[in-house]
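As a representative case, the lines below give one protein's residues and fold tokens.
***
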Amino acid sequence: MLVDTHCHLDAAEFDADRDQVYQDARCAGVHRIVVPGVAVDGFDRLKTTVSRYPGCFAAYGIHPLYVMQAGERDLALLRDWLARERPVAVGEIGLDFFVAGLDPVRQEYFFIEQLKLARAFDLPVILHVRRSVDAVLKQLRRFPVPGGIAHAFNGSRQQAETFIRMGFKLGFGGAMTYPGSTRIRALATSLPLEAIVLETDAPDIPPVWLNRGRNTPATLAQIAQVLATLRGLPLEEIAIATSANAALRLSGI
């Protein structure tokens, strides 16, 4: 069994064939899928999606790319959803210093407020850390949470070890499949296996063989094989270990 710890199965890119995408994932051995939220106005759709498909689990949060349209009411509604639904995590939350035009101060405000909610509900978090690892770690030191996952990790070895000490697992997915991603592949090869979880971020971050096409959760089986090859381990060992890591870090999957 494989666990996709980050897949936006509720995204509009899957509206035409979501049932088939889900069935293909099951046939590929992906029996657990975590679907993170990105904005409050999508939470109903997210809940409907995970309710329709066995083995799918929701996280609720306000993504840093969506905080420019969010306000205090969104934080209040998020609190209500966390209290009512008890999801596997608060997420996808964090900071993005890659996309131009996003106010870093506003991002940090929403990130901190969501860390406070995670603390209040004793929930792990699913972190977005694009070009922002040190800034994310700074806030985690100020507002410790019950661990979680650093999604699409692309930091240094030192930063990875800091996340691990703080109770986080590190998410590896499509970027790891590119031969040119030398730092990511080196980390995937050398970090303790108990620190690693697998993800697709579908429909985004497609692996190399999709040639920038739409990603799907079914690709997780091949992504797992890439990790197995990098580490010189049997695929079954990778599947068992990464699934156990995901279950340990996320609530109730």
About this structure: The CA atoms of residues 9 and 35 lie 6 Å apart. The radius of gyration is 17 Å. The chain has a mean pLDDT of 97.
